Amino acid sequence: ICEVDNGRDSESEESEEENPAEMNMIGIFSRRFQLSVPKLASRRRVVQELLSDLLQVSRSLFSDSFFPVLEPVIGVGSACEGWSPHKEENVVYCMFVPLKPPHGYAFHLEPDTRQEMPQTSMRVRVELVCTCTGEQPDQKMLCFLHHSEEELKRNQVASLLHTLCTGPYLDGEKIALWFQTFVISVWSAVPQSRHYSMKVIPSSRSCKMKLMKASGRSLFVEMVFSVQQGDSDIFLSCQPTEAQFPPSTIWLESYAVAEAKFFRHVSMQAPPHSCHLKCLRLCARLLEGSGLSIYALKTTVMHLLTLIPLSEWQHRYLLMRVDDIMRYLRCCLEEKRLKHFFFGNEDMPEEISLPPAFQGAQPLNLFQHLAQDPAAQTEALQEFDKL
Questions:
Q1: Is 52 helix (H, G, I), strand (E, B) or coil?
Q2: In CA terms, which of 1, 50, 353, 362 is 20 to 30 Å from 217?
Q3: Residues 206, 252: contact at Cβ < 8 Å?
Q4: Which residues of 218-256 are buried (b: 16+ CB within 10 A; e: fewer)?
Q5: Quick check: 364 and 343 in contact, CB under 8 A?
Q6: What is the end-to-end Cα distance of the chain in Å, rounded?
Q7: pTM confidence score
Q8: Residue 307 lies in a domain
Q9: What is the CB neighbour count within 10 angstroms for residue 380?
């Protein structure tokens, strides 16, 4: 992430061997499209510290309950990847909150047999596990499998199945409402409450918060509840997409954690002052108002970051890389084909853990809708050419 220092980009100290005309053009672009990436890293740290404190409170409150175990948050999305196309006051810091089953329960992922959606969807079945056997049986906890319902009601709080599930399946709406209520009730116990006032913004499947300082500056945070697939970087998310709003017991496969991990990998391998984040920000600003997906743009850049050596992403090559990105994207529109980055990709960094089925899978086509609708493809190409 390129930090701004006293109003100047650190790239301004680049070698004087660069072409003055090109550097002048890059300067014009930078001012016109506000390419100096906002102070995303420092604000992200503030958000992560806040949520860490919130989850610490949740662990002390719910340690003897049957609510899901809330794992440490994982920053995802453009703000946490370091390239948000939005103005600083509109940036939303999105955090995945992985859920683990509490003691006495197990989560089992079941494919959604209807598969009415293009994105893989599953249900999270909650099953009871015997707690009265094993190496160290819990003497305080009655076993849901081997004690009568009357005895359980008399001695224990309601089970997870009776609170945050619909039938045997984890319910995203019930989890969101439970957590929103928790945040409101414990806010005064969190250290950050001395510096920020907090408002929970209504949301049916996530917990959205607006944090306000006395100065009037605001921070927007969204906590998205998720379930990890095995030990991979692929998660199931209860957050619907713009195109899909499934039932509350349907969880959509999300690649957001793997994407964030990919950008961290690139930042560690790339030369100082790499322009790949500025390229993303510039191209996203160029696409504003068009019908072209920012996710398609992001996928394009991820592909090019594995095809073009990272040494060729130095700041002085910004205009060339922007040209590569836009040409690649147009070729994909013409061919009505843009491969999903995480399926069947032989160039995947080893650090990213994918389910075994992803390795030999046929790449998904993000432009499948254009292949099925020639009129939509024609319109997309016309919009792109106007850019």
A1: helix
A2: 1
A3: no
A4: ebbbbbbbbbbbeeebbbbbbbbeeeeebebbbbbbbbb
A5: yes
A6: 27
A7: 0.86
A8: yes
A9: 23
- Contact status, residue 3 vs residue 39, Cβ threshold 8 Å: yes
pLDDT at 248 (0 to 100): 94
Please answer whether residues 209 and 199 qualify as being in contact, where contact means their C-beta atoms are separated by less than 8 angstroms: yes
Q: By C-alpha distance, which of 193, 165, 238, 208 is closest to 50?
A: 193
CATH number at residue 323: 1.10.1410.40
For helices 294-307 and 318-335, the axis angle rounded to 10 degrees is 110
Q: Domain range holding 50?
A: 31-132+139-255
φ, ψ of residue 219 to 5 degrees: the values are: -125, 130
- Coil/strand/helix, residue 250: coil
Cβ(228)–Cβ(235) under 8 Å? yes
CB neighbour list of residue 336: distance below 8 Å, 6 or more residues apart? 365, 367, 368, 370, 371, 377
Residue type for position 225: F
Dist CA 194 CA 223 (whole Å): 21
* CA nearest to 104, candidates 136, 135, 72, 138: 138
Collapsing DSSP to helix, strand or coil, 207 comes out as strand
pLDDT in tens, 291-315: 889 999 999 999 999 999 999 999 8
Residue numbers in the chain where pLDDT is lower than 50: 1-16, 35, 116-118, 135-137, 154-155
**116/195 same-domain check:** yes
Question: Does 351 reside within a domain?
Answer: yes
Q: Which amino acid is at 149?
A: E
Annotate 63-88 with DSSP letters as a single string: TTSSSPEEPPPEEEHHHHHT---S-G
Mean pLDDT of the chain: 84
DSSP letters for 88-138: GGG-EEEEEEEEEPPTTEEEEEEE-TT--SSS-EEEEEEEE---SSSSS--
Token couple for 48: 């992560």
* Structure confidence at residue 235 (pLDDT): 97
- 196 and 251 share one domain: yes
